[in-house]
């Protein structure tokens, strides 16, 4: 943030609603638990409103939410900015024709799946998830959407 920018007062309120859990899921990690944020309707709404204010005028046509918490934040953001919501699911959760992207985790591998007909050429995507650890899931989501020709 530059000197001339004013910090939005909602951010401090949101921060106070996120519980920090030391040594979870393993020693040395300071886990930022958003489930406590979801228990406070004002803080949850403020969080969604901040995203909406940031992205509403960016011609986003697709909000892609990564399972599962990306669904919690992505759906209301999509509705508010007038975009369609596309769930990026874990394996074998979507019926019909899908495309997928495999990715490596620190403890193995996984994959994200999406319906083939969920996005169109020319769509502009916003990817929503609740955290970035190693970045593998986010990279997989970007690759999946890029393969559909919708991410710059």
UniProtKB/TrEMBL annotation:
Catalysed reactions listed for this entry: AMP + diphosphate = 5-phospho-alpha-D-ribose 1-diphosphate + adenine
Entry EC number(s): 2.4.2.7
Gene3D superfamilies, sorted: 3.40.50.2020
Major subcellular location class: cytoplasm
HAMAP family: Aden_phosphoribosyltr
Swiss-Prot/TrEMBL GO biological process terms: adenine salvage; AMP salvage; purine ribonucleoside salvage
Gene Ontology molecular function, alphabetical: adenine phosphoribosyltransferase activity
PANTHER family noted in UniProt: ADENINE PHOSPHORIBOSYLTRANSFERASE, PHOSPHORIBOSYLTRANSFERASE DOMAIN-CONTAINING PROTEIN
Annotated protein name in UniProt: adenine phosphoribosyltransferase
Functional pathway: Purine metabolism; AMP biosynthesis via salvage pathway; AMP from adenine: step 1/1
Domain Phosphoribosyltransferase: 39-148
Family recorded in the similarity comment: Belongs to the purine/pyrimidine phosphoribosyltransferase family.
Gene Ontology CC terms, in alphabetical order: cytoplasm
Entry's localization field: Cytoplasm
Keywords: Cytoplasm, Glycosyltransferase, Purine salvage, Transferase
Oligomeric and partner information: Homodimer.
Highest taxon of source: Eukaryota
């Amino acid at each position: 943030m530059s000197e001339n920018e004013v910090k939005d007062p909602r951010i401090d309120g949101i921060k106070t609603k996120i519980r920090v859990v030391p040594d979870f899921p393993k020693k040395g990690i300071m886990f930022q638990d958003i489930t406590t944020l979801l228990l406070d309707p004002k803080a949850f709404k403020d969080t969604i409103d901040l995203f909406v204010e940031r992205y509403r005028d960016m011609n986003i046509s697709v909000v892609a939410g990564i399972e599962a918490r990306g669904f919690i934040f992505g759906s209301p953001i999509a509705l508010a900015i007038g975009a369609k919501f596309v769930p990026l699911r874990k394996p074998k959760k979507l019926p019909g024709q899908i495309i997928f992207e495999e990715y490596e985790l620190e403890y193995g591998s996984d994959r994200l799946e999406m319906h083939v007909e969920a996005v169109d050429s020319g769509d502009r995507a916003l990817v929503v998830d609740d955290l970035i650890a190693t970045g593998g899931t986010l990279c997989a989501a970007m690759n999946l959407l890029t393969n559909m020709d919708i991410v710059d």
